[in-house]
């Protein structure tokens, strides 16, 4: 069956799409002024690199972990980022508009619109958990202090995200220098011992071997990046040309991932080899291995406290930006709801995730995020290619191809989490990547057999 080409009347276009204006070329800038530093700042966040190399390291050793880091960086750039970035470049339109070609003018409000906003509160919970944990460690590690900080941190970030994000943006450019300096210190202290790291036998992880080490590392990194990959549409709207899109990813994604996670893996290997850190006794404790804990064994208490405070301060802009993105998403999909109410409810959820420790279980969190946005990115790539390397335009209502692709991809992506609950469900390796592939293939097939709603004419479109 051929792809349907009829269109609906212009009046059927929702206001949020009809009123969207492309970002003009005069407002765009080189990759080194926007895309690269912003993405690099994401990966310099200490919650990304502090413990996420540990599982790969204790599954297969240092070299397979480093291979997994490089492979994950390439996947993030070429599969999850490039096409969204090019869509943003060519259309000048934000993700919630561009996504309507995949999920429909009505469906796009939910996917990726509402989902992007809702998941930001998950990120806010992760930020609150690790930032509050770092601060409480700096001041003695009291549990009551941790709970109090979770509440204050989340509430303050939500308020600033709603009211004062412009002030945070002015200092956010320089704060990533703090985690970068911490990584360099860790490399200087522990790199010399890294070659002496030997994989413990038996390993504390559920699986063992070089291949599993690569796959688990890929899963963690790609799961962390999945939402930022789809947000490449928004980054692309600030790019001047395709070279800006590519260079922003080469430096801000590939380079930053390899730098931050690579240093963290080497530092953790050196810390374990030197005895600064001990190999955990169980699988559940593997993810508690942290670069900052290794630093605590080498640095003076005052310097360690300063580092933990500095890493926390560097995390605050990210918490505010999560609230800001959530607020904008909810304003779009729920324009009649006061954003203080919607963001307030989301902030309470974030507090609960942080206080209960759920937000600290990063493999689980990244698994859900990767399962959610892996198929979104896969379906968007398929739609882009089917349209002749361009944006097809908004499709009417709910586009079946996009929703079927997402549902099947999400199920595959979340299977590792379900496996922990029910062992009869297979444990899919590198699940976020598998979710991407399923989303791509299913969208391509369903589009080819005609499961697409009609394209709706759009005013002010520049990618015609």
Automatic annotation (TrEMBL):
GO MF entry, a single one: cytosine transmembrane transporter activity
Transmembrane segments: 61-83, 95-124, 144-162, 174-197, 209-235, 247-273, 306-327, 339-359, 365-386, 398-418, 430-451
Gene Ontology terms: cellular component: plasma membrane
Claim: Zinc-finger is one of the keywords in the record: no
Keywords assigned: Membrane, Transmembrane, Transmembrane helix
The keyword Cytoplasm belongs to this UniProt entry's keyword annotation: no
Stored InterPro entries: CodB
Residue ranges of coiled coil: none
Protein name: Cytosine permease
Species this protein is from: Aquisphaera giovannonii
């Amino acid at each position: 069956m051929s792809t349907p080409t009829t269109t609906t009347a212009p009046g059927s276009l929702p206001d949020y799409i009809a009123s969207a204006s492309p970002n003009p070329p005069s407002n765009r800038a080189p990759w080194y002024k926007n895309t690269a530093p912003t993405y690099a700042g994401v990966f310099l966040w200490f919650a990304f690199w502090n413990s996420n190399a540990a599982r790969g390291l204790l599954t297969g050793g240092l070299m397979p972990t480093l291979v997994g880091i490089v492979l994950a960086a390439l996947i993030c750039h070429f599969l999850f980022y490039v096409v969204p970035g090019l869509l943003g470049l060519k259309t000048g339109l934000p993700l919630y508009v561009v996504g309507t070609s995949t999920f429909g003018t009505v469906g796009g409000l939910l996917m990726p619109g509402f989902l992007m906003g809702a998941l930001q509160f998950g990120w806010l919970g992760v930020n609150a958990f690790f930032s509050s944990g770092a601060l409480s460690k700096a001041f003695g590690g009291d549990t009551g202090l941790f709970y109090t900080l979770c509440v204050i941190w989340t509430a303050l970030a939500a308020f600033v995200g709603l009211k004062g994000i412009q002030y945070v943006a002015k200092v956010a450019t320089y704060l990533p220098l703090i985690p970068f300096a911490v990584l360099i210190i860790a490399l200087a202290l522990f790199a010399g011992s890294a070659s002496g790291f030997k994989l413990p036998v038996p390993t504390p992880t559920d699986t063992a071997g070089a291949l599993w080490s690569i796959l688990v590392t890929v899963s963690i990194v790609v799961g962390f990046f999945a939402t930022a990959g789809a947000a490449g549409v928004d980054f692309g709207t600030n790019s001047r040309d395709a070279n800006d899109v590519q260079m922003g990813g080469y430096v801000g994604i590939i380079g930053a991932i390899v730098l931050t996670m690579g240093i963290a893996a080497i530092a953790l290997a050196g810390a374990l080899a030197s005895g600064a850190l001990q190999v955990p006794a169980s699988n559940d404790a593997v993810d508690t291995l942290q670069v900052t804990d290794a630093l605590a064994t080498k640095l003076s208490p005052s310097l360690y406290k300063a580092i933990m405070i500095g890493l926390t301060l560097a995390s605050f802009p990210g918490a505010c930006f999560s609230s800001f993105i959530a607020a904008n998403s909810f304003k779009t999909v729920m324009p009649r709801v006061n954003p203080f109410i919607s963001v307030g409810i989301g902030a309470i959820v974030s507090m609960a995730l942080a206080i209960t420790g759920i937000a600290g279980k990063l493999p689980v969190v990244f698994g859900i995020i990767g399962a959610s946005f892996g198929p979104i990115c896969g379906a968007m790539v398929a739609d882009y290619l089917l349209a002749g390397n361009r944006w097809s335009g908004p499709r009417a209502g709910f586009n079946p191809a996009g929703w079927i692709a997402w549902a099947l991809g999400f199920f595959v992506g979340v299977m590792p989490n379900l496996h922990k609950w029910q062992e009869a469900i297979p444990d899919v390796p590198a699940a976020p990547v598998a979710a991407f592939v399923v989303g791509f293939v299913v969208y391509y097939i369903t589009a080819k057999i005609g499961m697409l709603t009609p394209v709706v004419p759009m005013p002010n479109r520049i990618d015609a």
